[in-house]
Amino acid sequence: MTVKEVLRAHARTRAMHARTQGARAGTQGARAECGNATAGAGAGDVGTRVEGEGGPTSPAAPAATVAAGRAAQELGIRRAEFELAVHLGLIAVVGAPGGGRPRVHEEEIARLREQPGFPDGLAERVRTVGTAEGAALLDIAPARFTRLARAGCVSPVTFYLNRYRAVVWLYLADELAAFASREPELLAGRTPLGLRTMLESGADWRPRNWRSQRIDRLLSRTEDPWARTAVQASALDPVQLAEVVDDPYERAYLVRVRPEPVFGRPGSMAAREAMGELMLADDPDEILWRRVNLTLELDGAREDRPAPRPGDDGGIRTAPPVRAGAGARTGTAAPASAAAEPAPPSVRPGASGSAAAGVPTGKGLLARLGWRGRGAG
Hints:
Strand 5 and strand 6 form a beta hairpin. The chain contains 17 helices and 6 strands. Helix 6 packs across helix 7, helix 11 (225-233) packs across helix 13 and helix 11 (225-233) runs antiparallel to helix 15 (284-304). A 3-stranded antiparallel beta sheet has the order 1-3-2. Among the domains are: 65-112; 128-200; 224-343 and 357-368, no CATH class. It is mainly alpha-helical. It is flat.
């Protein structure tokens, strides 16, 4: 046998061996796929999780999603009601690839459609009423309803601008019904002295309660320290913010990582301007309260990681995506506390973590809170 014949025979043997191995691998792969399909059929869709809520979906079989408009149609609610349901944490959404508009998993739609009382139940949970309809719901005069709202007894969940660009507050019908059953004595008879005194002084808790609930819901959807700091910073004007966060790079970073509502800000310029004004604390005690919360969140964020600066190699972590469907607390804010706020993080005695890490700590605590030069009173 010549050398060429030996080489040809060796090549044929290798080719036959490769075909045999390929056939065996294909048989084993088919068996594995059959086994996986059987296991998947037994498990059903229960194991599928919303990305960002409990773990990523399987890359081999990504869960189907639909646009927000179609999801609203399938759930039998209007688009505005759908966006409010997402804001309240009643519907979980996921971000579209490439940063597009949020989408909804078909499993989430199926879950909501299987709930008792669908579709009226979901629509009732997001039904909003204005002053006149809210007063009729509570069987009181509109003037009395306005006084209760100004005193902070009921809190608005959203607003719109009327034809005169005046803010019109809207309230959840469910929360009004709960208030009526909880405080029936406020719906009839004379207004308590404390409320009368508050109203005579010109107090109006509607913007403050709206701010508090909005901040509380945004905080409930993120665990990133810098994103939480940015949420607290959104209630202060630039002057107040600079007094607490004196580092310009940190202030710029707060703007970058600030969580926004899932569907963004209002579309019209007038509505955006109105929201920008309503988001800012305007009462001295509320401003101080926001500065305290911002200071505590900022100290925790500095201990977690420094804000990026020019020349960084990009290795600093940025804020994780906001969890759009996390459960939000929707209780009515009370005047005494406005809304639930995060508990202050623990502070180690001695030097702070930011100082140990070489991050500038800026002014002292009292100066950052605006107490410098005010005296004991």
